[in-house]
Amino acid sequence: MDSKIQGVLDAYHEMIDKERGSPRMEAPGGRDGGQDTRMRAVGPRTGQLLNILAASLPSPTILELGTSFGYSGIWLAEAARASGGRLITMELHGYKSEFARDMATRAGLADVIDFRVGDAVEMIKQLNVGIDFILVDLWKDLYLPCLEAFYPKLNPGAIIVADNMLRPGDDNVTAYGEAIRRKPGISSVLLPVGSGIEISRYEP
Ligand SMILES: C[S@@+](CC[C@H](N)C(=O)[O-])C[C@H]1O[C@@H](n2cnc3c(N)ncnc32)[C@H](O)[C@@H]1O
What we know:
The protein is of the alpha/beta class and about 200 residues long. It has seven helices and seven strands. The chain is globular.
């Protein structure tokens, strides 16, 4: 990891520690209203694992669903740059995407990232490239609609990582885990890293 990237990761780690040490506050106006300032970031262990997995693919097109303030994107973009690939990252809110772009610029990684703002489910349908790696990390009720949208766009050998999968009683993540295992060509495993990640691979 070069020093500019490490400096940006260190800044994010301070923000993550502060957020995890504070009481949870609902965003004013609900989850998509007002100025939601919570990062809800994947955390360093999951970030490192994403980086290792994505960097193992040759010139991958990486898709991130849920940019938020850009933490996981730094790990993914570093892997993209190291392996000659690129990152497309999707976020509903422009102000979060702008923050993420500023941090990526500080890290020297903005040139490998395509920041897209809008509803990921709709934007996935409009993608005209095959996908080699996906991080699924947006609102949980969107995991299943996103799966249906991105599955036809997977390249052979694609890896899909879904975060927040160890949430007992959350029907949305249970439904995603079951649905992706039923898809032809998918093998999948649930790992207790961070808040639980489902790692799936597509080999038709
Ligand atoms: C858990 S956070 C992502 C955290 C980020 N991956 C990280 O580790 O730094 C989920 C994000 O998904 C975004 N989101 C929610 N619905 C969305 C949608 N329909 N399309 C795109 N992004 C959405 C939220 O605004 C939020 O910023």
